[in-house]
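Bug report (template v2)

What were you trying to do?
Predict the complex of my protein with flavin-adenine dinucleotide.

What happened?
Run completed; filing so the output is reviewed.

Input:
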Amino acid sequence: MSSTTARSRPTAIGSKPRLLLIGAGHAHLHLLHQSSLLSRFDVTLVDPGAFWYSGLASGVLAGDHSPATDRIDPATLCHGRGVALVRARLCALNTDARQALLSNGTSLAFDRLGLNLGSAPVLRSSDDEASSDSAASLPGDKQTHWQIKPIPHLVRLRRSLERRFQRRQSVSVEILGAGASGVEIACAIEALGRRHQLTAGALTIRLRHRGSGPLPEAPARARRYLLAALERRGILVVDSRHDRHLPASDIVDATGLGPPRGLERFGLPTIDGRGIAIDPSLEVQGTDGVFASGDCAALIDHPLPRLGVHGVRQGPVLARNLIASLDPQASLTSYRPPARALSIVNLGHGEALALYGNAWWGGRLASRLKRHLDLNFMQRTRRLR
Ligand SMILES: Cc1cc2nc3c(=O)[nH]c(=O)nc-3n(C[C@H](O)[C@H](O)[C@H](O)COP(=O)(O)OP(=O)(O)OC[C@H]3O[C@@H](n4cnc5c(N)ncnc54)[C@H](O)[C@@H]3O)c2cc1C
């Protein structure tokens, strides 16, 4: 499906149109490699930090990879490509005046705008699974709560655990949520503990679910494979309905991701709980030349899971449509989400569980494939073309 709309031409005469990219997410990093796009626009990228690749995050937590392996400084991609980088956050937007207000107090004008802002942990009400009283703290000890996004939180979690492992302090971690992220984090913490040769009982890991068990959407046999793998690692699977108060030194909230906080400040149409409302062309509904991609964007009729793979696949569509948007006669291309996507859950110790629709396989080959795909992605994204 393609669409043509009457769209504005950039106003500045004789100069290139200004493309403002907010957020160094997957789709925007793809744009930085597209010389046909970069040659048509004056491009500015705004991001307060770095790109962190979640595919490698569990490997970083487990101590298999250094944090540097998982991180790309956007400055290295902008440099030499004529792309200006501003280290700041977007605070407010005026799409009529085509102005973006940044956290450093400056305001940037744009002709075309891209938003690739990622996602954030969902804030829970006090009676929810992730509330602070869902696990009791150990007497005399403070309890630390961890979010799984942004990814640097997991780097801090690793450092905190390593410090305590080295001091031979006992640690009990409760992971709230037994989806793919929760399972990966439980296995990564166990692998990190094993790396430190902890004595029996020094590390307790509980993976908490709400009655549906770990990876509820996986085929039954894959789930049995997973339960056996968790048991071999000594990870306790806990059902919230029967058991609410167990002492824990650390709580990790893996209950789910939602839209970035404060999206409403930008005055764009949003879909409750999903993100900025976009057409299949990735253009924000009812706007002209404002695009959104990745986790922060919500395709109107097609709810998608929050997966980096969609941001990656949206990159080429976004590049094409930004260029097409300069030509009032050109039609925009639609993003067609794949019917199913390969998901490989890292179980640590060189083992993984691969899921593709109803097909699955577990073991070393799945882990090797994941490692290959993830490291390859990072290498390709870093490389100057
Ligand atoms: C532990 C874990 C493991 C995961 N594993 C996988 C996996 O194996 N495969 C998979 O497909 N998905 C995985 N995911 C999901 C994946 O993390 C997300 O879907 C993906 O990161 C979303 O990418 P994105 O391009 O939308 O944004 P991100 O890659 O998150 O980038 C967003 C960028 O926007 C910037 N930003 C945010 N707000 C502002 C602002 N106001 N102004 C300027 N910049 C801003 C941020 O600094 C960041 O650089 C995992 C998630 C977690 C938590």
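What did the reviewer find?
Residues 115 and 147 are 23 Å apart (CA to CA). The radius of gyration is 22 Å.
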